[in-house]
Amino acid sequence: MEKEEFDIIKIKLSLIVYNCLYSNKLLFRTDRDLAVHNESSLASELGVRKATVTDLLYCKSLPSTKTIFLILNAFKISFSDFAKMFDKINDKEAIDHIKNISHKMDVLKNL
């Protein structure tokens, strides 16, 4: 695989995690029992450092297969649903996400 293909994979994974966190953060307003609702709670649920989650969200690293499965478990997403989400993201959407990642993360933190 070329570096560009790995970059698109990183961006798509980041976008999926971002969207899940965004949805959960909105739900957390009415459901305080929701375990995963921000970077810190996701890191805690995964048993990794917050920096690991931050690197994933900012497309700085490609998570291991184990971490991907832990993320799916944390968000209660089946692998088949994850695959569908991944396939739905086109390259243009991925590129738009990476161009606006700093702004999008600020929005997420300020919800």
TrEMBL record:
Under InterPro entries, the record lists:
Cro/C1-type_HTH, Lambda_DNA-bd_dom_sf
> PROSITE patterns, alphabetically?
HTH_CROC1
Enumerate the GO terms in the molecular function aspect: DNA binding
Q: Which residues form the HTH cro/C1-type domain?
A: 42-82
Instruction: Please report the name of this protein according to its UniProt entry.
Output: HTH cro/C1-type domain-containing protein
Organism of origin? Echinicola soli
